[in-house]
Amino acid sequence: MKGKTLFDKIWDSHVVHSIPEGPDVLYIDRHYIHEVTSPQAFDGLGRRKVKVFRPRQTTATADHNVPTINQHLEVKDLLSRTQLDKLKENCDNHDIELYDLNHEFNGIVHVIGPELGYTQPGMTIVCGDSHTSTHGAFGAIAFGIGTSEVEMVLATQTILQYKPLRMRINVEGTIQKGVTSKDIILYIIQTLGVDGSTGYFVEYAGSVIRSMSMEGRMTVCNMSIEMGARGGLIAPDGITEKYIKNRQFSKGKIDYIDYKTDDNATFDKEVSIDISTLEPIVTYGTNPAMSIPISKGIPKLENLNENDRESLSKSLRYMGFRSGQRIEGEKVSYIFIGSCTNGRIEDLRDAAKILKGRKVADNVTVWIVPGSNQVALQAKQEGLDKIFSDAGAAMRQPGCSACLAMNDDKVPAGEICIATSNRNFEGRQGVGAKTILSSPLTAAASAVTGIITDPRVFL
Amino acid sequence: MSALAFKNITSTAVPLGIDNVDTDQIIPARYLKAVTRGDFGKNLFADWRYNSDGSINKDFILNNPIYEGQILLTGKNFGCGSSREHAAWALSDYGFKVILSSHFADIFKNNALNNGILPIQISEEIIANLLKLVSSKPETKFIVDLDKQIFSTVDKSITENFQINAFKKECMLKGYDSIDYLINLRDKVERYEGRKVG
Ligand code: SF4
Predict the structure, then answer these.
(1) Which residues of chain A fall short of a pLDDT of 70?
(2) pTM of the full predicted structure?
(3) Where are the domains of chain B?
(4) Probe residue for ligand 1, chosen from A340, A420, A424 as the CB with the greatest number of ligand atoms within 8 Å
(5) ipTM given for this complex
């Protein structure tokens, strides 16, 4: 008999009903919500006069538009405050657990789910946020949904979904100094393209993935959406088990052994990537696939086909770079270390490794934003906050922050920001802001010098 | 939001023609702070439509008075990025009913369908031809016939079939509400939950 992929095993065991020639009705084990994409869904429930069907399976947090300083004060921005109040009201009315601002478990939805032990292998997980793919690192089917679908899951604990195709990406080779999981996923996205996995659910495999910590795996799965994938997952193993053991809401021991792809299973597409010669990666354009090894130049326009030439010129016009130029050494004025991609404890440790005993350059503003209060607490216990403030970059309070600039952490027009987040779209960090994506190591190294810097000089 | 029934439309088209239009461009994050469904149309493509001082950017296609209509012609990979349904709301509030691309990002496609916008996927070559045609003859009218799955010029000089899943098509044509459908499956869901261990 033909074997099954891990993805198929989880999906098939969650199908409540299959509509002939239509989508599956998929049962959802865990639903995460936040203030931005849920209010209209609750409104919809109100109009239908239905309550949340399984409130215990929904967890809420305030993250997208919260300030990252003085969280004990009233939120100044009226619209943000209204959204936060609405979330609280909706959660109260429907008996949903909310980790509001100042709660010890508050933080970015994709950081708190795993760290509190809600995210478990074998689950189906959704959230009105495209980076829900993060949770796939635990061997779960996790994907982002729109607000109509948030309403659907609140009302029924199920969702109508077409089963995506399956893709496996095998990552092999030896990781070089200064290279992190962020560089690896940026490289994968650059190789496959921004739409390289559209329609697929990706399983990441291979020795490099196996050797990664859970934090590293989350960074990889997090960015699956940047190549169009419905989601990304990694088979759980001893590293997974160790991570979820003793988490606040973990159910105890898991039989993770069941959750793997059979040897004789086949994928609709399979790709192998060797990272042995990889160096730290930075983006230069306005989508996450536009990246280069830090020592290399931006692709030359004349080497591209007509279509790609057009989008590259458009991006370069926005970024103010020239075709073929190197960007290492370019001046930067903002540094953002945080987000659901790289706002976990290991990321802060990486930043601290470089900032320890050094000062950030005079011309830069540095935002170090922990992914959650738990991350912040751990950073304090390890003395990282002291390292940061000694370097002249005090750690802030958790939230999405400059990842999407819905709060005050906005990069001014025309300024360049090195960010450890996941999107360098035009205006993502503020109108006219120019974003360069990198690992926390590269971002921290650039904070010290004030120019785009290869972190290996400090390691 | 329940989808409204989709009627055949006859309309001119707007030739946007940009690849990888992400949802941050369709509607920037700072406009996501509403707690009600409201009108998101005025902020559609805000950073392209308006200059930083709030004035109209005359170079942007939506501000060119010779182009209008309910059909948006776009480059490949339309709607990539964030899952914000506000992107679909903004397009729909602005008045677009049909979007053509050589392919759509998954979450956006679902959001569009859930809001009565028909995403039509056709080849890059045809999109390129349509863009040329509309740019030179903005008055060209197209017919979108969902039931027959045909996109054509009114004079039928261009006639393209498009694919849509039978279930989605039925939902759009009839304006079915899939949440009601699922609420009616509650027995099945409870039986499933009973079977589920852990
Ligand atoms: S950190 Fe950025 S990508 Fe992650 S959930 Fe927040 S806004 Fe979305």
Answers:
(1) 252-257
(2) 0.95
(3) 11-164, 165-198
(4) A340
(5) 0.93
